[in-house]
Amino acid sequence: MSSRSRSRKKKASNDAAESLPLAPELFSELNATFYSGDPAEFLRMRIESLSLMALPTEQVAAMLATPRRIGSLGVDPVGAPADDVRERYIATEAVMIFHHAAEMFLRMFYAHVEKPDCPWLGMSSSTNFAEFKSKVAKSLESGFDEADIARVFLGGTDPRDASIRATDEEFAACVDGIKLLLGYSATQFLDESFLYNAAKHGLTTVRVDTGAMTLTSADGDTVRLHDGSLLIYMHGPSAPGVTDGPKHHISMTGSLPDQDLAVATMIYHAIADLWAVARRRYTAQSGKLILFDRTAVQSCISGPVRASGNIARTTVIELTKKRPDGTLTGISLNLRVIRTAAVEEGERSPMRTVELPVRQRDRHVINPSRRWLLPFSPKGSSRV
Hints:
By secondary structure, this protein is of the alpha+beta class. The chain has 13 helices and nine strands. The protein is globular and about 75 Å long.
């Protein structure tokens, strides 16, 4: 056989292997490995670590003066950063934590709905960002499915199916709260992607403190738009998703790190619930659920807005252009107002923790294999 024939045969064999589906016998081992991690705790640690920077200067200085070691790396003690440096860091990092949490939240929800036999595979195969954004936009338009929310985050269609000690009213209220949290996360994920990208890629946000920005109505009334710190960043189109129109814009977004971290904390609770439900389903481990309702979520969204006294979230400015005749264009402004400031929260129910016991059907290993196929599989994740 010629070398060319052998090459063609090898290529055909490789192509055939690439087109084969993943062996379902792997799923139980992949699931057991995936749920040995804990993304909710990672998110909680990010929130906790950032919040330490808000401690009084002397406490921050004492922490940073402590010698540290990470493996072979020794970290020399340093002094406390200046207050303005800490404020810039808190404002920018809070944006990144919230957006990371929001995207994680959405991706995990979709993976557990769409690929229930192996959600890890669903997460890893979602690589087309444009398709993912389109999916999020469609969910906002049609609404997140409450039955999917109940199964993914609470472990069943109702308290009896989920085997948790909760009333039907509590169960429905928690589904409603998670639905609001998904909707808010999706909205911010789409609407403020320029802000997140500027903070994450190249750290091109600039935090500035401004005086009061007001607007005078035709009746002569003065309305306060914003007073406090702003995150300023440049972008091309006027808004995410806009493909035509003028380019080159700069936006000023009101800094609300308290809102970013408060909502990220609620997302942490929701992801912890999802993870506990999934661990029970895929690895037969009992756990706990945290029940919360719409008012708890709404408090985290609108409370910081009311505390700030501002109604403007983002002001978009089209940067001045130069015409062929040498004249300059005028300034174009577009104001995005915060609508959540006017929402009435109502009476907030206390968050409650309930046990999530293992059910008989959770003890069944999905797609069991008679031998381990992966070298890192946790004990008991397959059949010998």
